[in-house]
User: Fold Xylanase from Prevotella pectinovora.
Amino acid sequence: MKKLTLLLMLALSFSQSALSLQYSKADSLKVVRLFLQADSQKFNNIQERTLFFARKLIGIPYVASTLEVNRKEQLVVNLRQLDCTTFVENSLALALTHQSGKKTFREFCKKLQTLRYRGGKDVSYIGRLHYFTEWIEDNTRLGICKEIQSPNPPFTMIQHVRVDYMSRHSDKYPMLFNNSFNRAGISKMEKAISGKSYRYIPKSQVKNTRLLRSTIKNGDIIAIITNKSGLDTQHIGFAVWHKDGLHLLNASSIHHKVVEEPMLLSAYLAKRKTMPGIRIIRLKN
Assistant:
């Protein structure tokens, strides 16, 4: 009880020192409580730890664009509403913080910033990792994850990235609209990503086979790529194997909340013409 009281006091005291941070007391208290729950568990790797925290977020409402709420960029902590990207980021930030042993809300915020912004430092609109391709590359450089692109099969196809959606639709982004500095920065970033190629697993190969089970591990990040013009990915979540095959643990716009999708990923992909396949990102211990 004394430990819980002390940790809750530390969580609440953080509000005085984080001027570039937006969060609620409910968020800081939730983080601390989740750490306490994780303390009683045994984890063999970062994947198991991440899935533990991800499953603790099941049921949280899906809400899009929760990072687009301010006129000026801030590190937004919102564990009351999640989209597919913030769900993955928050789950991983919780796991990385808990693994580090520095189980405080302050350290959680640092980890979340590292995941969300270029180099872990540039807390600005153009420093945010908007496209998941850049998210993968930046967090690979930081040693947090690596992209899996073999064996072949099942990685039989190549995605040639061409992104410009944000530049072409700046009116959809409050911090881009009527902001020439941000538009120029985003356009520069898009050009840096475009032209790169990555191997992916076509949806025809997403089956309950020994090969796929040996290729995709529980807790891997699944990035569902898209053929929509100007975008690289359409949805992300965590891989979870059930007896019947591969499923996706994700913040779902269909279910309007975080769910461990009951539908097989193969069936989910088969219903969507804009989703040709998946890229696989593995967390590093």
Observations:
- The two ends are 31 Å apart (CA to CA).
- The chain has two domains: 21-142, 145-283.
- The longest helix spans residues 84-100.
